[in-house]
Write a structure and sequence with these properties.
Distance between the termini: 66 Å
Bound molecules: ligand C2E, calcium ion
Shape: globular
Strand content: 15-25%
Radius of gyration: 20 Å
Keywords: Membrane, Transmembrane, Transmembrane helix
Protein name: EAL domain-containing protein
Organism: Shewanella litoralis
Strand order of the largest sheet: 1-2-4-5-6-7-8-9
């Protein structure tokens, strides 16, 4: 038993070093990728399941290092802790702005959601970055929707709220991402300027086992607060069917479309005769 314990400790140390060195290497590589503007944006459609129409897009960052895609959860976290998320976010705004300007020639109402991190509120003049983007690409504020996760709001509401309110005054809309995972009270939600709740995938999955309780409650909360609802991570026809029955028709997930590069999105929009 003693020997095994010792071996386990050694194994743990080696793995831990691997993790630290992977992170350090990725941080260096990410710095270079940002300098070279090598990150890409993929777009996932949000669909009105009642008629198959397109409601909007979510912009999701993609980073290919050599031939490997690094998972966004991993490189976004590295960008956040190493102070690079503001630069990453500015590149996201610029790419999304350019894409929207082009897409809106054929789809004049098309809008796109962008994910925001806490550090972007701290490190830069976020309001100015966002306004610069829509000015540069001649977009109305309604073309860009901003996503904040529920856990971020729960931890840092007072820090974020003034900037949020300023952006709302300019006409930008906020979506509460991963809703249901972050313990917001109804009272608190009522006082925050969110336009839409995004129902986390973890509440959509139980629909397949005929367990509706959580989604039903979340939809009730959304209706009570007068907010739009988008269900995320919807993969099956059963899930779509049950969400429609329960009163949620805005759907994002592999069932309708996966995130895709801009060129693929253009072909997808044309193939699906949208809008
Ligand atoms: P998120 O904002 O919750 O984005 C939704 C995630 O669900 C995406 O993962 C998307 O690819 C995935 N997804 C969509 N439909 C389905 C489905 O039907 N089934 C399943 N299993 N998954 C689905 P992705 O692209 O790996 O991004 C992970 C997270 O990284 C995002 O979660 C977001 O928090 C963060 N992220 C991505 N791009 C950015 C960015 O530009 N800025 C910031 N701050 N965060 C970003
Ligand atoms: Ca999101
Ligand atoms: Ca989400
Ligand atoms: Ca998430």
């Amino acid at each position: 038993a003693k020997r095994r314990g010792k071996n386990q400790a050694v194994v743990f140390k080696i793995n831990f070093l691997d993790i630290v060195s992977r992170r350090m290497q990725l941080e260096q590589a990410l710095r270079e990728a940002l300098n070279e503007q090598e990150l890409d944006i993929w777009y996932q459609p949000i669909i009105d399941a009642r008629n198959g129409g397109i409601i909007g897009l979510e912009a999701l960052s993609r980073w290919k290092l050599c031939s490997e895609f690094i998972p966004p959860d991993e490189f976004i976290s590295i960008a956040e802790t190493s102070g690079m998320i503001t630069k990453l976010g500015q590149q996201v705004f610029d790419k999304v702005g350019a894409a929207l300007q082009e897409l809106r020639i054929d789809y004049p109402e098309l809008q796109c959601n962008v994910n925001l991190s806490l550090r972007q509120f701290r490190d830069s003049d976020l309001t100015q970055d966002i306004i610069d983007c829509i000015d540069k690409y001649h977009l109305p504020p309604s073309a860009l929707h901003l996503e904040l996760t529920e856990s971020l709001i729960a931890d840092s509401e007072t820090e974020i709220l003034p900037t949020m309110q300023r952006l709302v005054e300019h006409g930008f809309k906020f979506h509460l991402d991963d809703f249901g995972t972050g313990y917001s009270s109804l009272e608190r939600l009522k006082n925050l300027p969110f336009d839409t709740l995004k129902i986390d995938r973890s509440f959509v999955v139980p629909l397949g086992q005929d367990d509706h309780v959580m989604v039903k409650n979340i939809i009730n909360i959304g209706n009570e607060l007068g907010m739009n609802l988008i269900a995320e991570g919807v993969e099956t026809e059963i899930e779509v069917h049950k969400l429609l029955q329960l009163g949620c028709h805005q759907i994002q997930g592999y069932y309708f479309a996966r995130p895709m590069p801009l060129d693929t999105l253009k072909a997808w929009l044309a193939d699906n005769n949208l809008p």
